[in-house]
Amino acid sequence: MKRILALLLTGAMAFSAAGCGAEDEWAEASTELNILMPEQYISDTLIDQFEEANNCTVNLSYMNDVAERVETMKNAEGEYDLVLVNDGYVAELTDDDEIRKFSHNDLANTSTINDSFWGSKSYCIPYLMKYVYVVYDTKACPVEITKYNDLLDPAMKGQFAVPEGERELFMMALATLGYAPNSVEKSEIEEAYDWLVKLKANEPVYGDVKQALLDGTVTAAVIDDRTAAEVMAKKKTVQIAPLTKDKIRVDIDVFVIPADAVHVDLAEKFLNYICDPEVTAANLEEYPYSSPNDVALTLVSKEYHKRPERQFDYPERVYFRKNISDAEDTYEEFYQKLNGEE
What we know:
By secondary structure, the chain is α/β, with parallel strands linked by helices. The protein has two domains: 4-129 and 252-306, Periplasmic binding protein-like II (D-Maltodextrin-Binding Protein, domain 2), CATH 3.40.190.10; 130-250 and 320-338, D-Maltodextrin-Binding Protein, domain 2 (3-Layer(aba) Sandwich). Helix content is 34%, strand content 16%. The protein has 13 helices and ten strands. It has helices at 22-27, 44-54, 66-74, 90-95, 166-176, 186-201, 209-214, 225-234, 264-274, 277-286, 294-297, 302-306, 328-338; strands at 4-6, 32-37, 57-62, 82-86, 125-137, 160-161, 220-224, 238-240, 248-256, 318-320. Strands 1, 2, 3, 4, 5, 6, 7, 8, 9 and 10 form a ten-stranded mixed beta sheet that branches. Helix 5 (166-176) packs across helix 6 and helix 6 runs parallel beside helix 13.
């Protein structure tokens, strides 16, 4: 029977029961696996099946904020064997020697993953992903949204919601301006800042985007497809904006093995298990996120593909978060300026 340790979103660390010493566990197969990930991402039934097949216990610890998960992992001292992070963190974690390189000897099922969504094969395994696009209320929104620049229309003042994160805002602005979303050129970042100043002047709403759309506080939002699904299920007038040229962001959730992980053998067995197309397909039926597993997508039900959050015609026009370590100070400078923190 697995133990599920609920973590508060404040970033408090979960402490699971200590296992055997590292030396003993290298001598024989591990019987315990400790995973840090968000809630509602994996089926309990699939976890039970893995435990039974491998005579082990899987301990799931939950933390929904990815930045907090990364910091928790860095300070966990062997507490976790697998951590789910955003792919944009992988380069930094690799450079800092925070994660372990995969052997790939027991990861045959990863061949079903689309290479387009797999940036660093040696250090991460793509699991689920989210498209981030614009939705709007077709009856209440004062503007028909076909591009990000429509959010700058004076009629949209106070009518839309956007993410608060530094990188998320600047990537959107850079993509809108036609630049590489992960640009490290100061002149381009400054132009993105100028665009964001205009956006901020139109008084975007932050916070609970889902509720703001449902109660009509806003009539448009930059939102991920899973949240969009929850909104569209309750409010039929909300639809995906038919963006004609702009690229949209894809956030890919990837599993990494911390450098100080204890149960590495079982971690790799688990990764191979969840990449099995039939296992992935079963999980998608319960938690219908987007998936980088091409074979699994051929096995899911027709209902999965017909879900409203998937009804847009530009799934290939995307960008991903990448490492911008050479320009971190520049981004921070302009983000603070944007928020009046100079």
